[in-house]
Specification:
By secondary structure, the protein is of the alpha+beta class. It contains 3 helices and 6 strands, in the order αβββαββαβ. Strand 5, helix 3 and strand 6 form a beta-alpha-beta unit.
Amino acid sequence: MKALRRAVSLCCVTVLCAACYHATIVTGKPESQTVVEKQWASSFIFGLVPPDVMDVSKDCPDGVAKVETQHSFLNALVAAITFQIYTPMDLKVTCTGSGGHASADYTVPENGTQAERQAVINEAANAAITSGKPVTVKF
């Protein structure tokens, strides 16, 4: 009977300790409908050894708008059962929508005169205003 009580108590503690965790990183870029998800990404030792890097460069050519990491109830339950040696998590990446990348690149000449440099900057500013998209100015 004592063994049954201990087993039930251990199960209750395990369930109560299996809390959910959710973190969101927002870059400020506009979001698209493209979402890349990886469930049960493997991390180890309380998450100190992170999961493998998700390469979303093919799915998100314009960049990333939002990254979410989450330990669901089932992830936390598995982590508790393995004494946090195996700590899986769910990853979700939202790609950048249109307008999230530069519409044009402008290069200010290194050895140019002040007037030439100012002309390039003015052209870039006008392009940004006209298109409503950011431009890149390289010095």
